[in-house]
Amino acid sequence: MVNLEINGYEVEYSGEFLDESKDWAAYLTLFLPSSNPMHMNNIFPRQRVLADLTFPDEGAAEDAAHKVALEMINPPISRIPSKIEKNELVLIFNLLPISQYELAFWPET
After folding, report:
1. What's the longest Cα–Cα distance across the chain?
2. Residue 103 to residue 86: CA distance in whole angstroms
3. Residue 72: count of CB within 10 angstroms of its CB
4. CA dihedral (101, 84, 50, 6) positive or negative
5. For all residues of the chain together, what is the average pLDDT?
6. Are 98 and 42 in contact (CB under 8 A)?
7. Is it the case that residue 87 has pLDDT exceeding 90?
8. Mean pLDDT of all residues in 66-83
């Protein structure tokens, strides 16, 4: 299991051997700091990512999980909406980096 920090997030990812297929699966967990220094907020509980794929070795599975983590934390600009209607209360979710998830209100102009 690899444990590292990316942009304030604690990221844990690993490759796990699948007995039934003799291949490897990618697993990921994401944490954010909390107000209690002895606790982290688990914002993405440990789960298999890219569930429809298997990998030939542990390293390939870990690399795939690392790429998923990076995309979740810093998604491509193409996933950010180009237009948001005014007077909407929008929960921006799975579009912006996790650190920027927020409720946003656009007043009439």
Report:
1. 59
2. 14
3. 19
4. negative
5. 77
6. no
7. no
8. 74
Give the residue with greater pLDDT, 75 vs 82: 75
47: pLDDT strictly greater than 90: yes
Distance CA 18, CA 54 (A): 9
CA distance 26 to 72: 15
pLDDT for 39 equals 83
Determine contact, residues 62/2, Cβ cutoff 8 Å: yes
13 close to 66: Cβ distance less than 8 angstroms: yes
**Which residues, 6+ apart, have CB-to-CB distance to 95 below 8 Å?**
75, 79, 80, 81
Adjacent-strand bridge partners of 5: 10
Bridge partners, residue 18, by sequence = 23
Residue 99 confidence (pLDDT) above 50: no
Count of H-run helices and E-run strands, the chain: 1, 6
Which residues lie below 8 Å from residue 66, measured CB to CB, with a gap of 6+?
2, 11, 13
Which alpha helices (H) appear in 21-105, and where do they start and end?
58-73
